[in-house]
Amino acid sequence: MNAMKRFLLGSDRAQSEGGGSSSSRQQNDVAITSTTSSTSGQQQQQQQKARHHSFQEANVGIKPSPSQHAALSLTHLRKLLTDLATASCSSPCQLSEPEKESRVYCMLPLFCRVFSHCPAAEMLDKFPEVATFCQLVSRLAVSEIRRRASNQSTVAASQAIATFLEMEGDGQDSSDAGGGGQGWMLLTSLNLLSLAGPALIEVMTAASIPSTMVKCLYLFFDLPPLDGSITSDGVDGGVDAESVAAAAAAGQLTNKEKRLLLQNLFAQLLVRLCSVPAACEELARKDDLALLFSALSSACPVHNLAWRKNANEVLVVLTRHGLTALVLAYIHSQFALLFQFFYLYYPFRT
Fold first, then answer.
1. How far is CA 325 from the centre of its chain?
2. How many CA atoms lie within 13 A of 278 on its CB side?
3. pTM for this one?
4. Cβ contact 284:327 at 8 Å
5. How far is it, in rounded angstroms, from Cα 159 to Cα 200?
6. What span, in angstroms and rounded, lies between the C-alpha atoms of 52 and 65?
7. Nearest Cα to 44, choosing from 56, 52, 34?
8. DSSP H helical segments within the chain, as ranges?
9. Is residue 330 included in any domain, yes or no?
10. Dihedral angle at the C-alpha atoms of 321, 115, 99, 129, nearest 10 degrees?
11. Which of the residues 42, 77, 108, 179 could staple to 173 if both were Cys, CB 3.0 to 4.6 A apart?
């Protein structure tokens, strides 16, 4: 009997212990389940936050970096150029000249935005179609200038060309070349293209850019004076390069500061062009080299003396880099009698 009681008591104890262990296992399972559910809940919250953040970014709009912005602009520029070439060649209805010019003008801000802060050596690598683009821009510039000079007096033609090439408005956003007027963007684009080297300058030469710019330089001697005081240098007494740059950044350019910017950019481009022999030979073939010599000896109003200085800079560069056999033969044939007269009546004295 006692043995039976002990046996029964032992089985009850085992059952109680087994029940306790099963309850503890259930508690552990509940704890694990709660931990797993809390972890999955945290992950879901994080995913919801990430989706919400990405949704906010998509709605607000994240600005791309400058390099990404330049890459997108370059891709768009190349697409516009390809579309123009396709429309000009394979379209059943050929584009008219105004339509072509409008498409080229749409490319200029993109080109200036991409290559204003890009090394010139990378232009040919990043933009393989740059020679075609250079040809289009050069032809457009020549057409616009000739259009304003035809059937006009020298004063009216010079004023029309200068007004077209000058920066428009107050100069705001000119550093990005997104503003400033069509003529200013044309001149800025040509200046950037000339930085790529002799290959593109020869493309400009084939489109008569050097001879056209020399004609403009000679016409600018007849520009009427701007309002305000004039110094012997042809610009305002208190205007210098630093003040003009500061005014352009602030968007507060005056007419005289715009004229000074035009003179600097125009001279910079023409000097760079005449550092290549092909451009100098084009001036000789078209008899425009004589205009540079005439610019140094012709009468010039005081307010336009800066243009005479530009002509002098161009001739200095030409004598250093452009005295080819063709140019020397032209100078000899055009000025032989003048040199003989000079040496006959004004001999050098030792």
1. 36
2. 13
3. 0.74
4. yes
5. 29
6. 23
7. 52
8. 2-60, 66-90, 97-115, 123-126, 130-149, 154-165, 182-194, 198-206, 209-219, 241-250, 255-273, 277-285, 289-297, 305-321, 325-345
9. yes
10. 70
11. 179
Read off the tokens for 156: 């009216």
Q: What is the pLDDT along the chain (350 residues), one digit of tens a residue?
A: 555 445 444 445 444 444 444 555 455 554 445 555 555 555 556 555 555 444 444 444 455 677 788 889 999 999 999 999 888 876 567 788 999 999 999 999 999 999 998 888 889 999 999 999 999 999 999 999 999 999 999 999 999 999 999 998 654 444 444 446 899 999 999 999 999 999 999 999 999 999 999 999 999 999 999 875 445 444 444 455 556 556 555 567 888 999 999 999 999 999 999 999 999 999 999 999 999 988 888 889 999 999 999 999 999 999 999 999 999 999 888 877 656 655 555 454 43
Q: What single-letter DSSP state applies at residue 177? A: T
Looking at residue 29, its amino acid is D
Task: Give the number of domains in the chain.
Answer: 1
Length of the chain: 350
Q: Is 49 inside any structural domain?
A: no
Cα–Cα distance between 172 and 161 in angstroms, integer? 22
54 token code pair: 């990405």
Residue 110 maps to a domain: yes
Q: Contact 129/80 with Cβ under 8 angstroms?
A: no
Query: What is the residue range of 215's domain?
Result: 66-345
Q: Which of 246, 278, 286, 262 is nearest to 191 (CA)?
A: 262
